[in-house]
Amino acid sequence: MSKNIDDIANKELLSNLEALGLTDKEARVYLALLPRQDTGTSNLIRASGLHGQFVYQALERLEELGLAKHVVQNGRKKFSAGSPERILSLVEEKKLSAQAVVRQLKEQFAGKHEQSFEVFQGDTAFVAHEFALLEGMPDGSSIDILAGNGDKYVEIFGGELNEYERIRIEKKIRLRYISMSGNPNYLKIMAQTRPFFEYRVLPQSAPEVDTDIYGDKVNFMIYGNPVVAFTFTNKKVAEGYKGFFEVLWNLSSK
Q1: Where does residue 64 rank: exposed (0-12), middle (13-18), buried (19+ CB within 10 A)?
Q2: Which of 92, 204, 206, 210 is the most buried (most CB within 10 A)?
Q3: CB 147 within 8 A of CB 177
Q4: What value does the mean pLDDT of the chain take?
């Protein structure tokens, strides 16, 4: 990497841009563009430390993505960077495309596998999986939760919990929450402030495990170090756990 690029951003920033879909060369050229306005390719070649051919290719791709633009001055192209805010739009577009692919795959291969088992380990994978489960639930449906350690769940989610709640409320998904360890006063406040939230209390010693029922899925969350989620997809098994949940719900107190 050239010294100029090092002055603009560190290697972690380049890695993050690559994780968001840019190639290494595209990320370098974009970082070289950001502090410059209406600049020529010769400046970008020097700033990025890349061969001219790679710079031209990267600029073409960046313009397609809306991360670069050009004007013609005296018969020559002069380039400027598109707003970094465009990166958010690109991520959202990829998310929508991924959701469309998932729907198509489900429609095409529905019923091919009646049972599956998945494991998710670590905070990042855990949170991403929780969002995927939520987004896979039909509007107006219900998630049943037998909670052993709700405090730990909130701690792992951090600020992402607000976005989770926004999606849940928008989809009008109801939470039925049986607590085995929570503070009843806190749960009462939660019920008053969180739409589509009902709770019951089952006083007994609580394991460091939550059991959630999402339609035909049963999700077990073990709050060890690291946190691990096991998701079992089987309609009959999920129906059995739902029946067990109904028994506990009726035995629990508000």
Answers
A1: exposed
A2: 210
A3: yes
A4: 86
Render pLDDT for 37-75 as a digit per residue (tens, 0 to 9): 999 999 999 999 999 999 999 999 999 999 999 999 999
**CB 224 within 8 Å of CB 211:** no
Which amino acid, residue 217? K
Please state the length of the chain: 254
Contact between 68 and 61 under an 8 Å Cβ cutoff? The reply is no
**Do 3-87 and 114-251 agree at the fold level?**
no
114-251: CATH superfamily: Endonuclease Chain A (3.30.870.10)
Q: CA 254 to CA 242: how far, in whole Å? A: 19
232, 217 in Cβ contact below 8 A?
Answer: yes
Q: From its phi and psi, is residue 174 left (phi > 0), alpha (psi between -120 and 50) or beta?
A: beta
Q: Is the pLDDT of residue 101 over 50?
A: yes
* Dihedral pair phi/psi, residue 20, rounded to 5°: -85, 0
Nearest to 125 by CA among 16, 215, 19, 227: 227
Structure tokens at 17: 């841009």
Q: Where are the domains of the chain?
A: 3-87, 114-251
Give 136's DSSP letter: T
Half-sphere exposure of 31 (CA within 13 A, CB side): 30
Going by pLDDT thresholds of 50, 70 and 90, the confidence category of residue 1 is very low
Could you tell me which of 103, 99, 79, 80 has the C-alpha nearest to residue 91? Answer: 99
Task: Report pLDDT for 183.
Answer: 65
CATH top class, domain 3-87: mainly alpha
